[in-house]
Amino acid sequence: MASSRGEFSSRIGFVLAAAGSAVGLGNIWGFPTQTASNGGAAFVFVYLILAFTLAYPAFMAELLIGRYGQANAVTSLQKMSKTTFQKRFAFIVGFSGIIFASLILSFYGILAGQMMSYAVEPVIRTVGFEGIADWVVAGSLSRNLLFTASFMCLTLYIIRKGVQEGIEKWSKRLMPLLIMLLICLIIYVLTLKGASLGLNAYLNPDFSRILEPNLLISALGQAFFSLSIGTSTMVIYGSYISKKENLISLGAQVTLIDVSIAFIAGLLIIPAMYVAQAQGVAIFAEDGSLISGANVVFVVLPSLFNTMETVGSVVAFIFFVLMTVAALTSSISMLETPVSYVVERHNMERKKASTIIGGVIFIISLAIISNIEVLLGLVIATATEYGQPIVAMLACIFVGWIWQRNEILKELQQGNADVENSFFWKIWPWYVKFICPTAIAIVFIHYLNISI
Description:
Layout: H1 2-5, H2 11-22, H3 25-37, H4 41-69, H5 73-80, H6 84-126, H7 130-136, H8 141-160, H9 163-189, H10 195-203, H11 213-225, H12 233-239, H13 247-278, H14 294-306, H15 309-345, H16 350-370, H17 372-402, H18 405-413, H19 423-451
Helix pairs in contact: 2-9, 2-13, 2-15, 3-13, 4-5, 4-11, 4-12, 4-13, 4-17, 4-19, 5-6, 6-7, 6-8, 6-15, 6-16, 6-17, 8-9, 8-15, 8-16, 9-13, 9-15, 10-13, 11-19, 13-14, 14-15, 15-16, 16-17, 17-19
């Protein structure tokens, strides 16, 4: 079955694809500003601990579900089920992840399209088309439609190619490009006035804040959501892994790459913000907190690039290409989740399924664009603050309470014969059964309290 539906041809192929899914726009702008606003290196310290003690076990649960089932999220979960109730529960968990992955892609495509528009703007302005350059970054309905469609076409092109020729091949190209661009920009930004203040804000620990509830919850949320947990993405990627591979080490490698790139991104974003401050750009909000989120990318950094004259155009181009690449490595995994379901459950040809589902998601994007001030925030909250934690929690419950322990052990032993005697096996089953669902529930309740 694996050969007919495709699988990753190499360990590095899976690692880069899964890391690409995990590394997205949130890592590039979300993690750095959260760090700076939550005690600097103290936040990084807590985040790293939670990423490996809580997020990694939950991440492993989803990989195991997929590798065991060798199918889409719904089918894989149902293969683990013994009773009618369990099979219905499996359908709810798996299909919910597919729905939320599709919703995330619907707004992700809009944000990524904006990244593309800001990437082409300096090129257009350099060749003298000032009017077109102004339109490209004006935020108009037509601009959003054009670049969202362009980004979705890129994503669709890769997914139509399949696992090895699409996802794996392009992940091997895009992830090294992303890392190279990050490093080049960091080297350049650190030579500018104000960068040392940014490094101090990012790396100087304030351990007096390490037990603050908001810091702990924020770090926990970042650790879970940055690994694409709760969208069935890692279930489908897990299903493409060879039975010969050691899942424990694979999962650890992906987690390490994800947190490393998030940390490295902080070495770019925070110093760049303080460089912008040195150039007269405001980087603090009225309440004294560091500006975060989209305002960093679309307000603060473009203002910095504008002060850098000719060099600024080059740096702006490289930066927004970086952001587009980060978005693309995540979007291909989001689209693969519903596509794999339709291909396998409804026997539809991959290219046809990809085109239809990509078109449906683009229509959702059009609806969001038509009323972006209201719908964008609503869809983001629904998918990431409510949908992801619930699905992640249910997946952990499924593995911890429904899937039989001896079957889990047999699955792990296929790539690691001595796993029964390992520290992982002595700890992980209890983690995924008790600790992970509880931790995710805490994050979810925190979001509810904020939203009420």
